[in-house]
Amino acid sequence: MSWFSDFKIKRADKKAVKEYTRLHDAWTRDFTHVKNLIEVFTKASKGEDSVNNYLNQKPGEIALWSAPAIFHETGREPSSYQGGSSGVSIPVGGGVRFRVGAMKGQMIPGAEVQMDKDQGTVLLTTERLIFTGSLKTQEWNFDKLLGLATTDDESDYFISVSNRQKTSGVRFDPEVGREFNRFLGSATAAHEHGYPEVLESLKEIEEEVKKREPQLQLPSQNQAAGLE
Fold it and tell me: What is the pLDDT at residue 189?
């Protein structure tokens, strides 16, 4: 093998290791999330909380997960005035004229946008989602959920409930938001279908994730195998 061919193989190996590390890190995070979910919902099925809290819990309500977050809610940007002026010019003598006018236009309400309102802590239970901050406290009961959406990176959540007109939500760091998404989905499923069904599904997912663990394949190894 020439020195140039050897250089190309080593560079290809280095690239393969970098890609394997990226994929395996992502796989490890997903696998850890599934393991955590199984542990938390197994404890919940026994009536045990997984996070400390000072919540006045409802009968049968279990605390599952908690993390720092930012609370946001629909609000309006400042209003603006659009229009012009009109009027008449009145002579007052000596070639001086005094203009009398009036404004004609309309006040345009500011656009509705999601506005950050407070920073605090989110607590997820088997019954609801609760935000507690220094200025604002909000809860979203699963029984009143109308819709829930998130951004592509799973960091920002927009929640609509039947007992409030305004859409509100919470925002996390992206990695925390990814974990939250999985806990929220499992919590709402447990609320609707019960622990046994959710735990069965989670264990099936765990086995499927195990099978998908990335394996390192080096170009140099493949080349060596082809020469045998």
Answer: 92
